Amino acid sequence: MSAITPAAPGQAAQAWVLAFAHGWLLPASADAFADHFQPWFDPRIRLRQPLLPTLVGHQAFRERFARPLFALIPDLDGQVERFAIGADDAYIELTLRGTLGGRPIAWRVCDRATLRDGLVVERESYFDPTPLLRAILTRPRAWPVLARARRRPRRPRPPSATDRRDAAPGRPPARPTTNEPWGG
Fold it and tell me: Cα dist. 62→14, 34, 150 in Å?
């Protein structure tokens, strides 16, 4: 009879802390940042943080978290200060630093990551948003970037009955699909 040796408690959480620290250490871009973290995330990861709604999934992490954050603070990086590890979770305290609206900014954050089967299924970030909001409000150069970052991507319009009818084989479209007159 063979013996099965379970993974040591906290081993996945310890690996996550190392990956987390590496990912925040001078990320090259929002996409490089998202690419680094995505393999560590469950496809249905839930991300909770102040100032944003709860985000779910890899695409939301990239499109609604990483890209807006790095658009606002392009040189953002983070340094892990301390951490605590449980069997399937980790608390990581870090300091984030960068340039917002032409001036430096720094704030402290504590992230709690819950892991299942070695992947992060939930990340909740705790921080006082007041210093970040104050910096945004007092740096007008950041306002247009923030406005673009907060804008929700438009959802594609569902096809209308006319669109569905026009999709039938051999039927011409009911209205032009370009600015050109009917002949093209």
Answer: 24, 6, 14
User: pLDDT by residue (tens digit) across 75-90?
Assistant: 999 999 999 999 899 9
Contact 60, 37 (CB under 8 A): no
Alpha carbons 129 and 131: distance in angstroms, whole number: 6
| pLDDT tens-place string over residues 117-154 | 999 999 999 999 998 889 988 988 888 877 776 665 55
Residue 149 CA to residue 56 CA, distance in Å, equals: 17
What percent of the residues of the chain are helix, what percent strand, and what percent coil, each to the nearest 5?
Answer: 35, 30, 35
74 secondary structure, DSSP code: T
In a domain, 164, yes or no: no
14 is written with which tokens?
């310890």
Q: Which domain holds residue 55?
A: 11-148
